[in-house]
Amino acid sequence: MSQRAPAFPNTPARRRPSAVWKVLTSTDHKSIGLTYMGVAAVFLVLGGLEALVMRLQLAVPGNRLLAGETYDRFLTMHGTTMIFFVLLPLLLGFTNYLLPLQIGARDMAFPRMNAFSLWLLVGGGLLLYLSPFTGAPSQGWFSYAPLSETPFTPQRGVDLWSAALIVGGYGTTLTAVNVLVTGARLRMRGMLYKRLPMFAWMSWINGFIILFALPCLTAVLLMLEVDRLLGAGLFTRGDPVLWQHYFWLFGHPEIYLLILPAWGLISEIIPVFSRKPIFGYEFVAWSTVAIAFLSFAVYAHHMFAVGLGWPVELAFGTTSMLIAIPTGIKVFNWLATMWKGSVRYTLPMLYAAAFIVQFTFGGVSGVTFAVVPIDWQLTDTYYVVAHFHYVLFGGSLFAVLAGLHYLYPKFTGRFLDERLGRWGFWLNVIGFNGVFLVQHLLGLMGMPRRVYTYPDLPGWRALNLFSTVSGFVLGVGLLLLLINLVRSRTHGRPAGRDPWNGWTLEWLTDSPPKEGNFSLLPPLHSRRPLWDLKHPDDMDHLRPRRHDKNGHIREEERGHQ
Amino acid sequence: MSAYPVFSPASSLAQPITDLTRLTFWLGLGVFLIVALVLIYFMWRYRHRGADGEPGQVFGNTTDEVSWIVAAALLVAFLLFMTVRVAAASSPATDTRTPDIYVVAHQWYWEFRTPDGAASSGELVIPAGQRVLLDLTSTDVIHDFSAPQLARKIDVIPGQHNRLWIEAAQPGTFSGVCNEFCGPEHAWMRFVVIAEPLAQYRATQAAQAAAAASPNASNAAAARGAEVFGRVQCGACHQVRGQPSAFPHTGAVGPDLTHFASRRILAGGVLTNTPEHLRQWLRHTQEVKPGARMPTLPLSESEISDLSTYLEALK
């Protein structure tokens, strides 16, 4: 006969839930955001190892390590992993964590749906990594028909690959709905659209891009499966190029949705570390809207070699060039924000500076593809590989790393170790540029992309070997970062609520913030509520204004106090 | 051959693209350097010097914003103007005449056919100094035809006939490659373009269009090789025009081997065409080109020797 334990008043009635159980069941936007990032870190390790194996195969001409189709499997898994299960969850993680905090909300609009979205994405990732058991997909992340059709790629892994992206895509689409409703409905009193912090602005606009782009992917993947499983022949007896129209109508906006929140992070970091508000808030914000629209109007520049005809190519070349203008506005405004500032070089700012240089390089090389005849020569060479890694790795991921160093004190209450962080930073910068700078030259030498090996032509061996060695430098840099992330959680210097002397609402709460985020919110009259709190004599909305010589309202400039 | 084919055009079609590429690269480099140098200067000039208090709070300046938007727009307009000009010169209209050469892409080799019946694989012969119109299609997946010194690149799509002008100003040999991912052996789908003086080109084409001669009676090894060719049913995939094949030719599955010995590359560019390489290919097909549609055939060493003698006699 069992005896009930006596009910002492201070004894918990049940065992406290374990940390793992809490993460699995949480609907709190901060827990979900961090889980997104943790999931992304796991996939980053997988995708990174895949990249290193690929670079090993390409280190010397005629290498036999991954001959033929094995290399294509690594290629497919690497691309799919990095795009859908590293960058996307990292950015969704930041959005989930930061958006409610920045707009003074307690949580996202639909917390349970938020958790559902997360686990759909995780489920997608699991499906993807189950595919090797049924024959890993080898058709490339772009999965061009008819190569991806059963006669040419019979293995079942392709179907799991499709399922992975469909499932993950549903999760991401639901997240977009959540972000849009949260940004539209849960802003605190006084948080007008024109006062939204830059990150909130960009991740909110990003919700629209996701909402309209991802269904194109879902649709075309279903069409592929109708072909593969039911033999419809939409892309074989139909038009093989149709795949590309759908895929890039998703795929090009995808590039922008992988960088908009990253731009948002940079637009938060540079002002705080330069001690000045973002230069030209309205221009930075509206250029984001312009990019959101244009991102759908440029997709066919991935298809200039298809033979669409000159009128189509000219139209898409024009829009592709136009998108450089709003992108340029952002770069100019980041630089102008530093102008006459007082710039502090802690790790977030170092990563932000590296971001600007590398992203600009990637952006400029991107313009060369909008010049249609250059695209006719360089598309599908290593020049493209170099270009988009400059945008997505040197740009998007470096911005995320800047954001990670910036927000880590908020996530954990502790700083990342500065010394270890600097080692990681320099290895990452040297490694990254070492891998991809020389790939521009390989492209100009005519090395096609997506090849498992190459002939021993003059220069090819040395440049490929250099690229591979740099890849391992980069690997060490990222490894140091991971060590830092784990170690500083317990060993880092305590940070407090507002370690960077920030201005947006997330710095008002505890680090890490408790559930519900805020116990008290200050009245909000401007874009920088914490500046107003810290400078009661110099609040933004009470700042004296004067008209400049052009008749525009201009904030008064003053020297150091 | 130059290390940078994009920057060493050998054709009036590729030359304008090269000029535009140089111009765009210089402009792009200029923009990048301005951004990078301004960033470095600002990082140094406005670094935190330990002073207390905040710097002046500047919120923006509409005049500055509008100026650099206008500057960027002018740059874009200029590039657009150049794009239109160069595109017309480097990819002229093609629907006015019948094509000179038919290009058929296969997993993983290139087939080149002329209307008079010459067929080659991996080797496109054109007359120098003339614009040649190609008609390109594919039998399986999407490939891409790229010979950057001579023409723009263009995709080769099943069920679709793209057309492309190609030209070599002078006689010479130029390399080409498949640029669209087309499966495991995408890496080995290379070709060479050989531009010959017109008279020589006509002679080459006439020779190529002719059927293959039977093995010389004095060459017993070649005759045995022809017998092996028939017995192991090479003809199921490969055609040798003018030669009896034990197997009816079922279509262009593998390269046409009629004038095999005159070719320079083997198996899509994995190897150069020498007797030793050919024997290596026959011995270890799947190791030399993993995933190739041709299996490693169970041939004895003497059969391989005879077969290669036969094939190398197909001049």
From TrEMBL, chain A:
Basic and acidic residues bias (residue ranges): 550-561
Domain Cytochrome oxidase subunit I profile: 15-525
A Pfam family of this chain: COX1
Annotated region (Disordered), positions in chain: 541-561
Keyword match Transmembrane helix: yes
A GO BP entry: electron transport coupled proton transport
UniProt lineage: Bacteria, Thermotogati, Deinococcota, Deinococci, Deinococcales
Keyword set, alphabetical order: Electron transport, Membrane, Respiratory chain, Transmembrane, Transmembrane helix, Transport
Annotated source species: Deinococcus ruber
Name used for this protein in its record: Cytochrome c oxidase subunit 1
A GO CC term assigned to this protein in UniProt: membrane
Domain of life: Bacteria
Transmembrane regions listed in the UniProt entry: 34-54, 74-94, 115-134, 160-181, 201-226, 246-266, 278-302, 314-336, 348-372, 384-408, 420-442, 462-483
GO terms assigned for molecular function: cytochrome-c oxidase activity; heme binding
UniProtKB/TrEMBL annotation, chain B:
Chain ranges of the Cytochrome c domain: 220-315
Membrane protein topology class: Multi-pass membrane protein
Main location: membrane
Gene3D superfamilies for this protein: 1.10.287.90, Cupredoxins - blue copper proteins
Record keywords: Copper, Electron transport, Heme, Iron, Membrane, Metal-binding, Respiratory chain, Translocase, Transmembrane, Transmembrane helix, Transport
Domain Cytochrome oxidase subunit II transmembrane region profile: 1-94
One Pfam family cited in the UniProt record for this chain: Cytochrom_C
InterPro entries reported in the protein's UniProt record: CcO_II, CcO_II-like_C, Copper_CuA, Cupredoxin, Cyt_c-like_dom, Cyt_c-like_dom_sf, Cyt_c_oxidase_su2, Cyt_c_oxidase_su2_TM_dom
Family statement drawn from the similarity comment of this UniProt entry: Belongs to the cytochrome c oxidase subunit 2 family.
Function in brief: Subunits I and II form the functional core of the enzyme complex. Electrons originating in cytochrome c are transferred via heme a and Cu(A) to the binuclear center formed by heme a3 and Cu(B).
Name the UniProt record assigns to this protein: cytochrome-c oxidase
